[in-house]
Amino acid sequence: MAQTSDLQLPAFVDSVSSLAFHPSNPNLLLVGSWDRTVYLHDLRNPTNPRKLAIRGAVLDVAWAGRSETLAYVGGLGKEVRSLNFDSNESQLICKHDDAVRCVEWSQELNAVVSGSWDQTLRITRIDPSTSQPSPSPLILKLPHKVYALSVSKTKVVCAMGGRSVHIWDIAALKKALDEGKSGEEVEPWQMRESSLKFMTRAVKIMPNEQGYVTTSIEGRVAVEFFDPASDVQAKKYAFKCHRQVIEGVDTVYPVQGLAFNSVWGTFATGGGDSTVSLWDPAAKKRLRQFPKYPAPISALEFNADGTQLAVAFSQDDEGAGSGSGGAGGGNGVWIRACGDECKPKSKA
């Protein structure tokens, strides 16, 4: 079982769908749950989170820039809302025609980026003087449902059904927004087919912005690079992980959790086998695997200074009961202190 020295947040009544550490305050953590609630934890006083409920299960949460009390949330309610933990108020940001799977904030665009099962990506600017959302978001129509989304200072990477991955350049999106262009006038910078043969579970852009990592339901991780030059593309690779041999049968688990340590450039994966592994993408090696958690991993997130890793586990997630720690196990978020274990392998 995982280290008992981990800080254990109060248990959740339903599955934990999403985690978001504050971009600069390493102690503030948002937790989204299928119980239709977003929790704001201050790890200095972890037993008394602030919480706000929405309509429909929460699928993703994001911080609103540097604010320590304002967040964005999306889920089965088919809308993106802002949550103000000071006033306990919620405001509609934009509507979708189906569940909102992913929500991210872009400081460079001053906009909320949301991806939905309605096969659109919607970019809703927020007026800095009034904090009001634009009534007409930029709507980018996509070929498939959105399953995962990552936004950095320079890129937007969207992973969809049909193994489709679209990449947009932030500067080009900013220009389109400034010029009032419609979604039909905005083309992705790159359109790719995933290196993984099965459904994408998570995507994260590397801290150095040179590429991104994706995970799949079939126990695999792919490391990809943006630069289309053939010598750079030759560096991409994929590997198997989160697999167990149970009674002589190779059992494969989905890789639901994925998070980069922004200080060291290493990343963590969490699987339906209830384990978390740390990887060094440059050395192509696993740094370590943590002891098993009580239930399948549903989300992972490093804090801003790379010193803590939040691990969410959910007993009803895929993998439960099949050698993953058994059925049950509860729903929780444990915080692991990260020391030298996240440092990459030293170059020989």
From TrEMBL:
It comes from the Eukaryota. The keyword Repeat applies. Keywords: Repeat, WD repeat. The keyword Lipid biosynthesis does not apply. Pfam families: WD40. InterPro entries: WD40/YVTN_repeat-like_dom_sf, WD40_repeat_dom_sf, WD40_rpt. PANTHER family: MRNA EXPORT FACTOR AND BUB3 (PTHR10971). This is BY PROTMAP: gi|472584823|gb|EMS22398.1| cell cycle arrest protein BUB3 [Rhodosporidium toruloides NP11] gi|647401042|emb|CDR46980.1| RHTO0S13e04346g1_1 [Rhodosporidium toruloides]. The gene is FGENESH: predicted gene_18.70.
